[in-house]
């Protein structure tokens, strides 16, 4: 089994950002990441953004546009599929990553019909989690 908190081929800064997100288990803004890593020599948001760019490119971190924050991928195989969906609870803020091969192929087919070669998308489903919907 691969060690989830450390990845080969990443710089020290990329690994630190990845570990901060993995430990948080919930989305963090770039500034929250910066605050957590000040003790590790991080000084400027740009250092965090550079690391995030690479981690997102590799597919082990996802950006949540609607929350302006970042979350560690919860599926080891995510780099093999470009489409990712998240549920975001508007009440408690719980964020869950969903993987669905059918969604992946459906979106690709839908885009292909208009001649578009889709590579990545992040779908953000907003609503209420099970606890909040029934509570
Ligand atoms: Zn993922
Ligand atoms: Zn909730």
Features:
135 residues; alpha+beta; Arc Repressor Mutant, subunit A; Dna Ligase, domain 1; 2 domains; three-stranded mixed sheet; 5 strands; 39% helix; 19% strand; globular; disordered N terminus; binds zinc ion
Helicity level: 25-40%
Per CATH, the class of the largest domain reads: Mainly Alpha
Which molecules other than protein and nucleic acid are bound?
zinc ion
Q: What is the tally of helical segments? A: 5
Query: Approximately how much beta-strand content do the residues carry?
Result: 15-25%
**Which structural class best describes the helix and strand composition?**
alpha+beta
Largest sheet: 3 strands, mixed
CATH fold-level topology of the largest domain: Arc Repressor Mutant, subunit A
Please characterize this protein's 3D structure.
It is a single chain. With 135 residues, this protein is α+β, with helices and mostly antiparallel strands. It folds into 2 domains: 12-72, Winged helix-like DNA-binding domain superfamily/Winged helix DNA-binding domain (Arc Repressor Mutant, subunit A, Orthogonal Bundle); 81-134, Ferric-uptake regulator, C-terminal dimerisarion domain (Dna Ligase, domain 1). 39% of the residues lie in helices and 19% in strands. It has 5 helices and 5 strands. The strands form 2 sheets. It has a 3-stranded mixed β-sheet with strand order 4-3-5, with helices on one face. Strands 1-2 form a two-stranded antiparallel sheet. One zinc ion (ZN) is lined by residues 89, 91-92, 94, 128-129, 131-132.
């Amino acid at each position: 089994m691969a060690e989830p908190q450390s990845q080969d081929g990443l710089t020290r800064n990329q690994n630190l950002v990845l570990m901060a997100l993995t430990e948080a288990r919930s989305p963090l803004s770039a500034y929250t990441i910066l605050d957590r890593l000040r003790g590790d020599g991080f000084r400027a948001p740009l250092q965090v953004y550079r690391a995030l760019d690479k981690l997102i490119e590799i597919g082990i971190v996802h950006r949540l546009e609607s929350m302006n924050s970042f979350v560690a991928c919860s599926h080891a195989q995510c780099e093999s599929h470009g489409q990712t969906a998240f549920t975001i609870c508007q009440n408690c803020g719980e964020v869950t990553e969903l993987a669905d091969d059918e969604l992946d192929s459906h979106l690709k087919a839908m885009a292909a019909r208009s001649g578009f070669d889709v590579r990545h998308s992040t779908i953000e489903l907003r609503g209420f989690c099970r606890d909040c919907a029934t509570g």
